[in-house]
Amino acid sequence: MQMMMAGGPWLGPRAIELIDLVARWAHVIAGIMWIGNSLLWNWIDRSLVPRADGARTQTPEPVGSIWLLHSGAFYYMEKTLLAGAPMPRRLHWFKWQAYATWLSGFVLLLAVYWLGGRAAMTDPAVADITQGMAVAIGAGGILAGGLLYEFAHRAIAPSAPRAARLLWIVALSAIAVAFTQLLNGRAAFLHVGAMLGTIMAGNVVFTIMPAQRELVAAVQATGTAPSVASEASTRAKRVSTENNYIVFPVIALMLSGHYAAVYGYPHPWIPLAILVAGGASVRHVLNLRFTVPDWRPRLALTLLATVAALYATLRDGARARPAAAATAASAATAGPVDFADVRHVIDRRCGACHSSAPSDESFGAVPAGVMFDTPEQIVAFAPRIQERAVVTRTMPPANKTRITDAERDLLGRWIAEGAGRVP
Ligand code: HEC
Predict the structure, then answer these.
(1) CA 189/CA 256 separation, integer angstroms
(2) How far apart (Å, rounded) are the C-alpha atoms in residues 20 and 22?
C-alpha cells in the first residue's frame, strides 16, 4: 500500500518526503489565508456601525460601515445590498483559499497516511486490521460524515434547524469515536480533523458559493437583492456560522500529532472531545464579545476549564498505563538494568528508523531528527524514550518492529533507575 510500490523509483521515499513538504507548506499557507480571511470577515460583520439614518434596505439584513486603520492609511468599508446601484465591474470573491486548503490537505493525507506510509494508520494494540482496511475506514468515515452533514442541512434544517444540528453532532461524534476504536490514535485525531475540514470546504463549494452566485444573478437581473432571503442564502448563513465554530477544533486536531500523550491516552476519545468542545466554546465566547459585556471572565473560565480538563487527562494517562505501573513495581524487585540490554532493544526495535543509516525510510530519513546510533544519543533521549515507548506506547508506530511488553518494561526500568550512565 505504498506509493513506491505502485510507481517507479521516482516515487521512492525522497519523492514522498518532498510531496509531504510541499503539500504541507501549501496547506498551512492556504489554511492561514482562508481562516484569517474568514475570522476577519466575521469580525467586520459583527463590528459594523449601522447607518446613521437608520435606513434599512429591502432585506431585514442590517447594513452599515466601518473605519479601519492598517499600515499607514485609513480604510472605509461599507456593507450594502446595492439597492439599485450598478453591479461593480470588479467584484472580488474569496474561494480559492478554501479550495487550496482542502486540495493540499487531501494530497497530504495520501502522502502521509493513505499511500505514502509516512505515518501509521493502524495500531495492533487498538485493532487488528490491515492498512487497506484502515484506509477504507478513514476514507469511508470522512465521506459518511460529509454526506450526513449535507443531509441534515438539506433535508432537516429548513424545518427543524436544531434537530438537524443535533443529528449531525451525534453522527459525527459517533464516527470520531469509531475512528479512535479502530485506527492508530494519531491517525484517528487527524482523520476527525480531515472530516471536519472537508465539511467546512464542502460548505464553501456546495452552499456558500451557490448562494453568492444566486445573489449576484438576482441583483444583475432586477437591480436589487431578493426581498426575502432564499433557502440557499439562509443555509449559507447557517453553514458559515457552523464553519466559524468548527475552525478552532480543526486546528487543534491538525496539530495534535505532535502530542503523543494526547492521542496516546488510553481512551483517546476523551482528550479528542476536550479539544473539540474547548475550541468551539472559546469560539463561542469570542463571538459573544460583541453583544455580552462580561465576556472576559467567561473567556478566562472557558480557557481555564479546557486546560484543566486536558491536564487532568494527561496526568491520569501517565498513571493509567498498565506498562508504566508494572514498570514501577518491577523496578523495585528486579536487579539493576544492564545498558547493553537496553542498547540491544533500541537497536532491534528502534534502529530501523532512528539511525543515521535507516533501513526503513518510509517514515522519512531520521524521523523527528532522533538517532540512536551511540550510547550518548540514547541517554540524551531517555525521557522521550520513556514517554513514547513505555508510557504512551506510540513508538514504534503501529509497533512495526514488534517490540514486546518485556522490552518496554526493560526500557522503563532502566529509565526509572536514572538512565544516566553512558558506559
Ligand atoms: C518504523 C519507524 C520507526 C520506528 C521503528 C521507531 N520510530 Fe520513533 N519515530 C518515528 C517517526 C515517524 C517519528 C516522528 C513522528 C512522531 O513523533 O510520532 C518518530 C519520533 C520519535 C521520537 C521523537 C518525538 C518525540 O516525541 O520526542 C522519539 C523519542 C522516538 N520516535 C522514539 C522511538 C523509540 C524509543 C523507538 C523504539 C522503541 C522508536 N522510536 C521506533 C518512526 C519510528
Answers:
(1) 7
(2) 6
Distance (Å, whole) CA 5 – CA 11: 8
Substitution candidate for ligand 1 out of 344, 345, 370 with most atoms within 8 A of CB: 370
Q: What residues pair up with 123 in beta bridges, in sequence order? A: 127
Which residues, 6+ apart, have CB-to-CB distance to 294 below 8 Å? Answer: none
| 165: exposed, middle or buried (Cβ count in 10 Å: 0-12, 13-18, 19+) | middle
Ligand 1 centroid to Cα of residue 281, in Å, is 33
| Beta strand spans in 9-164 (E) | 49-50, 64-70, 73-79
Question: Which residue's CA is minimally distant from atom 11 of ligand 1?
Answer: 367
> What pTM was computed for the model?
0.88
Alpha-carbon gap, residue 40 to 88, rounded angstroms: 22
* pLDDT tens digits for range 348-367: 999 999 998 888 877 777 88
Write out pLDDT tens, residues 266-306. 899 999 999 999 999 999 999 989 888 899 999 999 999 99
Q: Is 370 in the pocket of ligand 1 (CB under 6 A)?
A: yes
